[in-house]
Amino acid sequence: MAKTTPLGPTVRPGTVVEFMHGDQPQLAWVLEESSGKLRLLTINKREMKLPAARLLPWHGPVLSADASRQDIQNILNERQEARGEIQAGLDVMELWELSQGEVESAPLNWFADLLWEEWDEDRLAALGRAMLQAKTHFKFRPPVFEIWPAEKVEQKLRQQAEEKEREAITSAGQILLKDLWDAHNQGRKPRLPDLDPELADGLERILKGKVGETLDETDRKIWTAISKGLPDVPHLALLLAQAWGVLPAHHNYRLDEAEYAWDDAWSQSFSSEIKEIEKGFSNQAQTPEIEDAVSIDASTTRDIDDAFRIEKHGTGYRLSIVLARPEAHWTFGSALDKAVLHRATSLYLPEGTSHMMPERLGTGLYSLLAGEARPALVTDFFLAADGALEKVEPRTAWVRVKANTTYEDADRAIRERSDESLMLAHDLATHLLERRLASGACVIRKPEPVVTLTGSGAQTSVNIDLKTPSPLSELIISEFMILANSGLALWARDNGVPLLHRTQDIALPQEAAGIFTEPAEILRSVKLLLPPTLETAPKRHAALGVSAYAPITSPLRRYTDFINMAQVCAFLASGEPRLDRDELDQLITHLNMRIQAVGAVQRFRPRYWKLVYLAKRRREFQPAVLVDEAGPMATLAMPHLQVNVRAPKKMLGDKLYPGQRFQINFSRIDPLTNEIRLGEALEE
Fold first, then answer.
1. How much is the mean pLDDT over the chain?
2. What are the CA-CA distances from residue 64 to residues 12, 13, 190 (Å)?
3. 186 CB neighbour count, 10 Å cutoff
4. Given pLDDT bands bounded at 50, 70 and 90, which one contains residue 401?
5. CA distances (Å), origin 617, targets 450, 625, 638
């Protein structure tokens, strides 16, 4: 059959044509034509008017203009069926492969010539229809088809697959989430729909991403769509995920928000870097210079990063503080370094401990374990008889700690006067505290509740006991660590070594200085303080009563200390710090963000478990003390739990004063939303 030319300048009556309607080619018969305007009869038996410019660039056959309506309908039906069969047998992808790279665009008959030696109107129309549907490979720009290049096709196929997935996941997600919400409200197990595993995985990913607020823009849109119609309640995604069972009861969503991986599994992907560090450690191990230092920590502590030894020096003291050096064989800027920076600090929660460093390093290779040779920063502090600091001399050395002592054992040795070194240490610590108090320090001492968990998931039970204090040994460690951080900050200032400083350069009134133990006094003093800031300029830390303070004593646990340790040790080795002040300033922005995010977990998670504890005992009376009665709401403290609760003053009576004691219970406690409402308050 002779090849016909696609649509010419005019189309006469009796011609079979196609036009686009609802994103699909529509078959029609030309009844009349006048100056480029057509009257058509469609295959759906509708008459309509259409500009000739709207026709697709293929037409025919041209038949009798005098055909009856029934004949026209029969012809259109035959053409529709024939073209459908031809289209079903076409491989448009093969056509794209044949044409891709030959030309950028071409009319439809050019493509037909690639497929057939002979073609007619039905074949041409079927091909046009197929190419219109292949939007990932061709672009129709009348009267030609553009041929997408391979890169564009790959991108469009990926987008098409993603869109298909979004549609499927949205449809399934709306059904699933509604049932999960009903199950949560009714306290029953959900009636889960039969989900394709990939869809289930996608919905689980979106739910968990919403819990941690880590969704990308695409998944945020899906979440908006699948959660439409559900109530806007706090932690909706978490409640749904728990109803589904993909997250456990009491899930710590703040870890997700901080993007902080719990336990040590995160470090497994850095095993090769860790092995290199271990190799560097073994290659540089030396005979210890110091073997008589001791550490004092809690009995559960595994990441031991400080120890000390002390002796009389004339009428004063020589105190050597030994600090772990986890940066000794470290590669800054490596993938492991970036991961540790992202963690920012270790977390010590009722559930357990998650260490900043890989445990092979932080609780193993660099922890100051008794009897093990370790690289360390050793700083000799020379002090007068009254505790005045006279000289600071840091150096790097290998050490072997003699003993890892607990607070309880050290306290007992001081009380029983059985260890002269610890007694000397306590004497010095007493002088150091007195000097800080004279400099305006605000020292807060309060009970320390210990939260213990047993069981898991919904069966977790909470118990809270007050820790038995070890005031003598605790004083030693707190004062020695403040001395180390402030003394090395002054040494660094005098030697031009930039460090990360904790500063609180504010003027405190005289009543803010002292040791405070009563809840009302503590709150009043805390209100006078501002949170310390992290900066490179050495300035006063008012609450500690020191003129400079650069945290360095916990390099296994805090990245600020880790950086400061590297600064000091680099200077001691080469005369130059690792980073200059500008580089430290640039680091502060990201480090502050991570400290804030991870710190929120440390602040709020213990309170969550305390509220779980109280919720089980909501109607039981708890001792409380009034600490603030300014304004319409009063604040009550529960010292045995270290939890404060606010209540309308009218619930407490007419005459209120700080220190007033009550017995209280609660009308509502929601640990997840941090909500606690007073039920009754009886004055003691």
1. 93
2. 10, 8, 66
3. 10
4. very high
5. 17, 19, 14
